[in-house]
């Protein structure tokens, strides 16, 4: 992407103020790659789910000029199986091929407009059963943070709105830009979209001991072979206790987390260096180029060389 990408954020009645501001905050931190415009279906103020209303500078005409349209969530008391006619009319102005993104209950708007039929999607787990009963044509997965289905992306609760926006930036401009944005917003640079939503998971007890030391050691030594027993030893725990504590603290298993970190490091090297694939594999701890290819393809569906071509084309500088 070489031109400024226009993001239109559509605020509907009952919108959550925090999530409404996520696209502007995250995309706005890319320092010029995106233009974010917030609009309403009729240009008038809308009520939020809090004790105030908001006024935007733009109306529905903004949607027709957008490259990406984001639907933030709104109060569950306003959720219905049908979209208000004004919203339907506004969405009709969105050009074919425009990227559509929903956060939390924003998926109800896309589904009610028929834009998710036959697609994979997610929403907040609390309203998953209701969503499934109203929109049986949608392949709903309520157990993930976000789903990238090409030109339609859906995400779960509040924090996953940050995740999906960072994911979009990473797709458009590579990990360097996404990581910079994450640092500016003081949020984790990457959480796998397939990571489970935090459903009925108890908060681990606050103690001075945890798995953070082991994770830091692993990140500093990704190039070395390491077993779960090595990580457990750095946490001074038995293997069983370590796995349990790690999963409670991170939300995924140690083995999966380690593969994610190696893939992330490999992506960074593919984007920013001319190193051969086999050498990159060694630097991140994979057994060889074949192993890296398999893991990268499983994670994002492309080969290392195809990934490198994509992000060199997006402006990454070695």
UniProtKB/TrEMBL annotation:
Record-linked CDD domains: GATase1_AraC_1
What is a single molecular function from GO for this protein? sequence-specific DNA binding
* Limits of the HTH araC/xylS-type domain: 212-310
Q: Tell me the SUPFAM superfamilies matching this sequence.
A: Class I glutamine amidotransferase-like, Homeodomain-like
Q: Superkingdom, according to UniProt?
A: Bacteria
Q: Which terms are listed as keywords in the entry? A: Transcription, Transcription regulation
**Does the keyword section mention Protein transport?**
no
**Name of the protein in question:** AraC family transcriptional regulator
Q: What lineage is on file?
A: Bacteria, Bacillati, Actinomycetota, Actinomycetes, Kitasatosporales
């Amino acid at each position: 992407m070489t031109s400024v990408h226009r993001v239109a954020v559509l605020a509907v009645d009952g919108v959550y103020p925090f999530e409404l501001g996520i696209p502007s905050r995250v995309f706005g931190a890319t320092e010029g790659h995106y233009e974010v415009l917030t609009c309403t279906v009729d240009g008038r103020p809308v009520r939020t789910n809090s004790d105030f209303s908001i006024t935007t500078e733009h109306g529905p005409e903004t949607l027709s000029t957008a490259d990406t349209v984001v639907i933030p969530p709104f109060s569950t008391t306003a959720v219905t199986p049908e979209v208000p006619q004004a919203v339907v009319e506004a969405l009709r102005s969105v050009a074919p091929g425009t990227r559509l993104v929903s956060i939390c209950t924003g998926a109800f708007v896309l589904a009610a407009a028929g834009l998710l039929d036959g697609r994979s999607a997610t929403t907040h787990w609390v309203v998953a059963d209701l969503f499934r009963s109203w929109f049986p044509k949608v392949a709903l997965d309520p157990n993930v943070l976000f789903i990238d289905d090409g030109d339609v992306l859906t995400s779960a609760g509040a924090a996953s709105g940050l995740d999906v926006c960072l994911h979009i930036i990473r797709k458009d401009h590579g990990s360097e830009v996404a990581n910079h944005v994450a640092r500016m917003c003081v949020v984790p640079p990457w959480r796998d979209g397939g990571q489970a939503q935090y459903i009925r998971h108890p908060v681990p007890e606050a103690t001075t001991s945890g798995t953070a030391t082991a994770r830091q050691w692993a990140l500093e030594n990704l190039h070395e072979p390491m077993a779960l027993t090595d990580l457990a030893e750095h946490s001074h725990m038995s293997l069983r206790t370590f796995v349990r504590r790690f999963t409670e603290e991170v939300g995924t298993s140690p083995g999966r987390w380690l593969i994610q970190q190696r893939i992330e490091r490999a992506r960074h090297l593919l984007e920013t260096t001319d190193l051969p694939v086999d050498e990159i594999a060694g630097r991140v701890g994979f057994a060889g180029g074949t192993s890296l290819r398999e893991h990268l393809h499983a994670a994002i569906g492309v080969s290392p060389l195809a990934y490198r071509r994509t992000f060199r084309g997006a402006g990454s500088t070695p």
